[in-house]
Write a structure and sequence with these properties.
The chain is of the alpha+beta class. The protein is built from 9 helices and 18 strands. The protein has 2 domains: about 130 residues, 3-Layer(aba) Sandwich (Creatine Amidinohydrolase, Chain A, domain 1); about 230 residues, Creatine Amidinohydrolase. The protein binds zinc ion (3 copies).
């Protein structure tokens, strides 16, 4: 599998005239060789020449963590007294064009530029992004497993197993996090809990605000789940809305618009439709419902080893959806100072149409506890 991915990335390098690819921290490395570098200042870098053997340059003390795949890459452990940048530059030769991982620490790139002053630099996402965006069967199965685990937590929330009234947003967030782990996630990436007026802020951090009866509660949570122990984990990400009591008619009207927009967005995500078209179709429903200016972010993002990756479902992204593309559809309506709502599923584009991996109740669920 990893050898096939390296072959595909080398074909992309040939097509784009890139001589060498270097990937460090971030998701390209686990995608290509199954090893995730810790985000430490010490350099870990996979050097992939277009025509030559790949080498993983890694601190000596981290070597033991690497699962060896000699058919894919060799390992070069550097000692504390060595300069790893010089080692990487040596392995690169004199490339006219090099691509470097988007999440690489800037200090490493700046130092490399000193060694390779004549090299043109490109972002690895141009090569690896389209490959990572098209999930194979095993990756889709991994996303499905993660989505199902998140769905079980959503059902516990909707079923009233998670007490809301009288607890703080952070307490509920911790509860959601604990349950994500209990349902099989290896890591929790976030558990946004936003009550009342806080729901108007899309990336609100759970706070010490106490949840009261008769208000809206937005819960957006996700983590990553390794299907095989030690292999990099694929992500979950979903949003569901609760009302702690009978919602007022005004909020129900807002929610009906959001519900229709999300369902329409999912249905529009067919193979051959552009990412921006899905955004436009989703946005139009919200505009028609009178909330156009209150939908203040893109419709969605790709998901895989990272929570946010290609393809982004946003105006300007003309990429046509392909079978295997996996992404969120998550429109929101945010009324500052008052309330807000978002509804999110992970969707896979397939030849048989869009497939939403999350199935927990999409309606505004009333929890009076
Ligand atoms: Zn986000
Ligand atoms: Zn989310
Ligand atoms: Zn999301």
């Amino acid at each position: 599998m990893y050898a096939a991915r390296l072959d595909r990335v080398r074909s992309a390098m040939a097509a784009q005239a890139v001589d060498v690819l270097m990937v460090s921290v971030g998701a390209d490395l686990p995608y290509l060789i199954g090893y995730q570098a810790m985000p430490l200042p010490r350099l870990t870098m996979l050097v992939v020449p277009r025509d030559g053997e790949a080498t993983l340059v890694i601190p000596r003390l981290e070597v033991a963590r690497v699962v060896e795949r000699p058919e894919c890459f060799s390992i070069l452990g550097w000692e504390e007294t060595q300069d790893p940048i010089a080692i990487v530059a040596e392995l690169c030769g004199r490339p006219s064009t090099a691509a470097i991982g988007d999440q690489t620490w800037a200090r490493h790139l700046v130092d490399l530029m000193g060694f390779l002053p004549a090299t043109q630099w490109r972002r690895s996402v141009e090569l690896v992004g389209p490959l990572r965006a098209r999930k194979d069967a095993a990756e889709i199965a991994a996303l499905q497993t993660a989505a199902a685990a998140a769905d079980r937590v959503a059902r516990q929330l909707q079923g009233g197993d998670i007490a809301l009234i009288g607890r703080t947003e952070s307490q509920v967030s911790e509860d959601l996090s604990r349950r994500l782990l209990a349902e099989g996630h290896s890591h929790v990436n976030f558990a946004i809990v936003a009550a009342g007026e806080n729901a108007a802020s899309p990336h609100h951090h759970a706070s010490e605000r106490v949840i009261r009866a008769g208000e809206v509660v937005l819960c957006d949570f996700g983590g990553s789940l390794s299907v095989v122990d030690g292999e990099p984990g694929y992500c979950s990400d979903m949003t569901r809305m609760i009302y702690t009591g009978q919602p007022p008619a005004e909020f129900c009207e807002l929610y009906d618009v959001l519900f229709a927009a999300q369902a329409t967005g999912v249905a529009s995500a067919t193979v051959g439709t552009s990412a921006q078209q899905v955004d436009r179709i989703t946005r139009q429903v919200i505009a028609d419902g009178g909330f156009g200016p209150k939908f203040i972010h893109r419709t969605g993002h790709g998901i895989g080893l990272f929570e946010h990756e290609d393809p982004y479902i946003v105006e300007g992204n003309e990429v046509l959806l392909e079978a295997g593309h996996a992404f969120s559809i998550e429109p929101g309506i945010y009324i500052e100072g008052r309330w807000g709502a978002r509804l999110e599923d992970i969707v896979v584009a397939t030849e048989d149409g869009p497939w939403a991996l999350n199935s927990a109740d999409h309606s505004l669920v009333i929890v009076e506890a």
